[in-house]
Design brief:
Length: 165
């Protein structure tokens, strides 16, 4: 790993990282993201009157499914036995923004940041899909890992003393 990237060998070839010697630890990662929507979309979601159904319930299930399918979507990610995935939403009616959060947990040899990021992304994409007939200008953004725990690098969260950005 002389080049500083774990997914490339010294010759620049893409490789799957060998985690065989890593200890099994409890792993947790939280990712967040937002979707800016119209007031019409907010109203339809909060009143559960969107034509495609209960947007938040469907997006929650989609986010969980997305986290579970992460290794099928991202080529060099390991298949992880997730022990728990939670997708939550906070609707900011005043600013017409839906905040989504995905928490992924596992007991294993590698982290679950990618699963949390995939979960929150799929949840937000599902909101977009279910509401695109009402609002063609929705904007998804601000997707990031906000905390992780477990593994060699230890615990980290945005705003903590270990946040070295």
């Amino acid at each position: 790993m002389e080049n500083g990237f774990t997914h490339f060998d010294d010759d620049g070839n893409a490789v799957m990282v060998d985690i065989g010697d890593k200890p099994i630890t409890d792993r947790i990662a939280v990712a967040r993201g937002d979707i800016k929507v119209s007031s019409e979309v907010i109203s339809a979601i909060t009143s559960k009157s969107a034509k495609k159904g209960d947007v938040i319930s469907v997006a929650r299930i989609a986010g969980i499914m997305g986290a579970k399918k992460n290794s099928e979507l991202i080529p060099l990610c390991h298949n992880i036995n997730l022990t728990k995935v939670v997708v939550d939403f906070d609707i900011d009616v005043e600013n017409s923004v839906i905040h989504a959060m995905c928490t992924a947990e596992a007991r294993g040899m590698t982290g679950v940041e990618m699963e949390a990021l995939t979960g929150v992304s799929v949840a937000l994409l599902t909101v977009y899909d279910m509401c695109k007939a009402m609002d063609k200008h929705m904007e998804i953004g601000n997707i990031k890992v906000t905390s992780k725990s477990g593994g060699k690098s230890g615990d980290w969260s945005i705003g903590s003393e270990t946040d070295d950005r």
